[in-house]
C-alpha cells in the first residue's frame, strides 16, 4: 500500500489523539471529514492502523515498578517459543528478540519490588531460560505512543 504525506499526517494525528474527530483531523490536513474517514478506513483495511486504544498511566493503576530483563535461552529456542511463554505473564508489557549476548529483552511492570521479584521468578522458571539479567527503571525520560512523523 502506498502511504502519502497526508496519510502520514493523519496517522500522526491519530497517534497523538485517537479520539480526534474526522472533522478536526480534516482541518489540520486540509481535507473534508468524509475524505479523512475514507483514508482512515483504507489504512485500517490495509492493516496500517491496527486499532485504537486508551493509554493508561501505569502509576495510576498501581504498577509503579518496571524493569527490563535480558533472557538467555537454551539451545535453539525460537522467537515463537519465547513469545508464547512471555505472553503467559501479565506483567510483560513488551518482549523483543535482540542482537548481542541475550536472546530476548523483556519489559516488565509490577506493583512493587516484591511483585517484580515474583514475576521475575516465574519468567526465569520457563524451561528454556538458562539465565537472566535485570535492570530496574528509575525514571522514564522519553515515551512515545506511536511511530512516524510528528503531528504538528
How is the topology of this model organized?
Blueprint: H1 5-16, H2 22-29, H3 33-45, E1 65-73, H4 79-86, E2 92-97, E3 104-110, H5 113-124, E4 129-136
Antiparallel strand pairs: 1-3, 1-4, 2-3
Helix pairs in contact: 2-3
Distance between the termini: 24 Å
Structural class: alpha+beta
* CATH homology superfamily name of the largest domain: Lrp/AsnC effector binding domain/regulation of amino acid metabolism (RAM) domain
CATH class of the largest domain: Alpha Beta
Fill in the CATH topology of the largest domain: Alpha-Beta Plaits
Strand order of the largest sheet: 2-3-1-4
Note the beta-strand portion: 15-25%
Helices, by number, come to 5
Point out poorly predicted stretches.
Answer: none
- Oligomeric nature of the chains: single chain
Computed Rg: 20 Å
How would a crystallographer describe the biggest sheet? Answer: 4 strands, antiparallel
Helix content: 25-40%
Please identify, by name, the CATH architecture of the largest domain.
Answer: 2-Layer Sandwich
What general form does the structure show?
elongated
Order of helices and strands: HHHEHEEHE
The number of domains is 2
Protein name: AsnC family transcriptional regulator
InterPro entries: AsnC-type_HTH_dom, Dimeric_a/b-barrel, Tscrpt_reg_AsnC-like, Tscrpt_reg_AsnC/Lrp_C, WH-like_DNA-bd_sf, WH_DNA-bd_sf
GO molecular function: sequence-specific DNA binding
Keywords: DNA-binding, Transcription, Transcription regulation
Amino acid at each position: 500500500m502506498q502511504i502519502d504525506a497526508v496519510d502520514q499526517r493523519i496517522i500522526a494525528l491519530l497517534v497523538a489523539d485517537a479520539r480526534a474527530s474526522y472533522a478536526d483531523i480534516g482541518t489540520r490536513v486540509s481535507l473534508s471529514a468524509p475524505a479523512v474517514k475514507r483514508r482512515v478506513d483504507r489504512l485500517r483495511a490495509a492493516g496500517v492502523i491496527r486499532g485504537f486504544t486508551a493509554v493508561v498511566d501505569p502509576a495510576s493503576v498501581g504498577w509503579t515498578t518496571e524493569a527490563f530483563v535480558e533472557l538467555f535461552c537454551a539451545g535453539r529456542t525460537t522467537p515463537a517459543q519465547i513469545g508464547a511463554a512471555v505472553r503467559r505473564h501479565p506483567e510483560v508489557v513488551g518482549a523483543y528478540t535482540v542482537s548481542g549476548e541475550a536472546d530476548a529483552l523483556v519489559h516488565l511492570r509490577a506493583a512493587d519490588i516484591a511483585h517484580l521479584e515474583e514475576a521475575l521468578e516465574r519468567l526465569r522458571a520457563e524451561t528454556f531460560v538458562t539465565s537472566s539479567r535485570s535492570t530496574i527503571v528509575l525514571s522514564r525520560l522519553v515515551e512515545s505512543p506511536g511511530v512516524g512523523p510528528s503531528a504538528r
